Backbone:
């Protein structure tokens, strides 16, 4: 059964969603994720499912909210500026506790920025992003195969926790091609009991995020926080590479992590004991696992395609027990393996491991 | 006693599609009348078990407490987008939005225009009382020229604040609109006409003809600073000349419903 096909990241996102039972897709064209929309435009009608190009990302997220209220598996995808527009709807969806999936194929920012790959929406995606106390389980793939797997997983986790789930990708993952193994087509699941399907033979269902009574809203917030504690207890995912005997740990996710792997391999060839710690869930962040790593390496190198957003989580996890060097590229620049290798070599030669917030 | 009860004939009761509760609406507000008429229409069409309503942000934000049908509460202005999502995945359901003038004609103009233009098979009840009620009487997109509100304390100056938006006239230009009418509820005759329009709007959706929108020229005794009766007279004297009642779009096939 393991027949692999060559797929572009954005198309793999779409096909994986379809196979996970996505019944409705709403989107708006924005580079570098537009191929998700185009792929859905062809495939969804063929399967008798819903595809709709919205008039804005604001409308797309609210169409997704509506479809999610009907209890079907539904998704939208976008890129950074569009993701900003979706924050209002995401906050409502989080409070309403309806499952939904949002994929952000990040590009350079702030503002209109550019269309090159970036990881600068990390804080927006992992710390809330919209108004109010909410968080969103966020999966960070670093290969197209993982992109496929994570989109399917995102639908399952969204159902399990009745929450919106994010997949954090970037323009590199969206645009590049790799061989992937696609999962089997799954059966569509029936709508859950809470869904708005018409009050036939049951009392009416209401889906709202309005609680004018403060103690009631506090209770809803406590329920949400309890969901987040469960997610933090059960869903932490991470990967390591050559970390067992490492003296230096590189911490990176997504595209930055796969480039760091190449640099680590070359550093190993040069005799440097370096390994990779790669968060797969960036919320919940693998704080405990990284704290354990901090206890047995001498230095850490955080690599991001941002000014150092995950860096804050790494600092929290390690509590300053280990010196941390930071290497970041901004504005859509993708780091080269040589750049990261140079950073590793600098650490190995005992150069001061100061956090350089300004990046390269 | 039992015999006597059997002799009685019930001529007036609460519609099944309305819950038995006290509303938060101000005395004399037309929201109550429109709620009741929508509920009566749902009862008469026998669609209570397949109707889904969407409440706006504004005075009718709690509409879901008053209708006994499945209900969602949308973000400000986004009800038509949310309704689109709900309806597209279950086309056999009857989906309606209930929106005020701030919600539909200011923050939500993009969503309503595109939903109507796509010819979504959904129904919108648009309550136009020319003011933001819930936040305490600020200028709405439909506030009349010269009208005093808390954010136009010297009267709406159209040179600075622009002109009141005529929603029905605008929507009627869109190809996806099947039924666009303006009614009011200032007297029993107009209330009967409004009810008929509400039923027609639902029928348009049930027949899959496209978007149906019923605007109700409404009042706000509290924020207008009037008695309920004065507010009805103010509608007739000031609102109706700017917002004339009538049918702005009646697509082919609607007449036969």
Residues:
């Amino acid at each position: 059964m393991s027949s692999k096909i060559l797929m572009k990241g954005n198309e793999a996102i779409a096909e994986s969603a379809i196979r996970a039972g996505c019944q409705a897709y709403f989107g708006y064209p924005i580079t570098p994720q537009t191929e998700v929309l185009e792929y859905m435009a062809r495939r969804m009608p063929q399967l008798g499912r819903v595809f709709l190009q919205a008039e804005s990302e604001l409308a797309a997220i609210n169409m997704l909210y509506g479809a999610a209220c009907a209890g079907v598996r539904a998704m939208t995808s976008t890129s950074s500026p569009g993701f900003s527009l979706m924050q209002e709807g995401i906050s409502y969806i989080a409070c309403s506790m309806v499952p939904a999936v949002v994929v952000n194929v990040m590009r350079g920012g702030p503002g209109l920025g550019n269309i090159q790959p970036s990881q600068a929406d990390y804080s927006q995606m992992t710390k809330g992003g919209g108004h109010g106390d909410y968080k969103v389980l966020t999966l960070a793939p670093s290969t197209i195969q993982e992109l496929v797997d994570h989109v399917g997983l995102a639908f399952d986790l969204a159902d399990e926790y009745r929450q919106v789930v994010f997949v954090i990708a970037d323009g590199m993952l969206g645009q590049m091609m790799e061989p992937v193994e696609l999962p089997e087509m799954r059966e569509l699941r029936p709508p859950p009991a809470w869904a708005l399907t018409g009050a036939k033979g049951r009392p009416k269902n209401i889906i709202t995020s309005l609680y004018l009574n403060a103690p009631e809203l506090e209770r809803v917030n406590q329920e949400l926080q309890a969901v987040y504690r469960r997610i933090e207890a059960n869903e932490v995912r991470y990967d390591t590479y050559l970390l067992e005997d490492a003296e230096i740990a590189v911490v990176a996710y997504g595209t930055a992590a796969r480039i760091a792997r190449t640099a680590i391999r070359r550093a190993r060839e040069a005799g440097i004991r370096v390994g990779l710690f790669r968060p797969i869930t960036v919320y919940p962040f693998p704080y405990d696992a990284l704290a354990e790593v901090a206890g047995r390496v001498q230095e850490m190198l955080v690599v991001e395609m941002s000014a150092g957003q995950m860096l804050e989580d790494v600092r929290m996890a390690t509590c300053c027990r280990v010196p941390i060097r930071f290497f970041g590229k901004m504005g859509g620049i993708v780091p080269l393996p040589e750049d990261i290798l140079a950073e590793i070599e600098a650490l190995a030669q005992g150069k001061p491991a100061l956090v350089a917030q300004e990046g390269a | 006693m039992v015999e006597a009860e059997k002799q009685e004939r019930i001529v007036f009761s609460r519609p099944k599609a309305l819950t038995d509760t006290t509303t938060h609406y101000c005395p004399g507000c037309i929201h109550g009348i429109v709620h009741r008429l929508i509920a009566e229409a749902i009862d008469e069409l026998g669609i209570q078990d397949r109707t889904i309503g969407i409440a706006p942000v504004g005075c009718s934000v709690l509409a879901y407490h008053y209708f006994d049908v499945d209900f969602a509460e949308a973000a400000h202005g986004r009800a038509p987008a949310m309704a689109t999502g709900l309806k597209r995945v279950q086309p056999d359901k009857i989906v309606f939005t209930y929106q005020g003038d701030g919600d539909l004609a200011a923050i939500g103009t993009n969503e309503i225009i595109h939903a109507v233009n796509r010819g979504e098979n959904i129904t919108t009840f648009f309550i136009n009382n020319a003011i933001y009620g819930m936040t305490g009487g600020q200028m709405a997109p439909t506030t009349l020229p010269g009208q005093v509100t808390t954010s136009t304390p010297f009267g709406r100056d159209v040179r600075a604040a622009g002109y009141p938006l005529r929603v029905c006239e605008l929507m009627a230009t869109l190809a996806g609109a099947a039924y666009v009418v303006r009614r009011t509820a200032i007297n029993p005759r107009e209330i009967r006409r409004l009810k008929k329009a509400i039923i027609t709007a639902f029928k348009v959706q049930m027949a899959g003809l496209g978007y149906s929108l019923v605007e109700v020229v409404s009042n706000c005794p509290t924020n207008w600073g009037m008695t309920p009766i004065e507010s009805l007279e103010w509608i007739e004297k000031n609102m109706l000349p700017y917002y004339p009642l009538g049918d702005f779009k009646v697509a082919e096939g609607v007449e036969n419903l």
Remarks:
- Chain B touches chain A through 34 residues (CB under 8 Å).
- The domain at 25-250 of chain B is CATH 3.40.50.970 (Rossmann fold).
- The CA atoms of residues 47 and 94 of chain B lie 8 Å apart.
- Chain B has a mean pLDDT of 96.
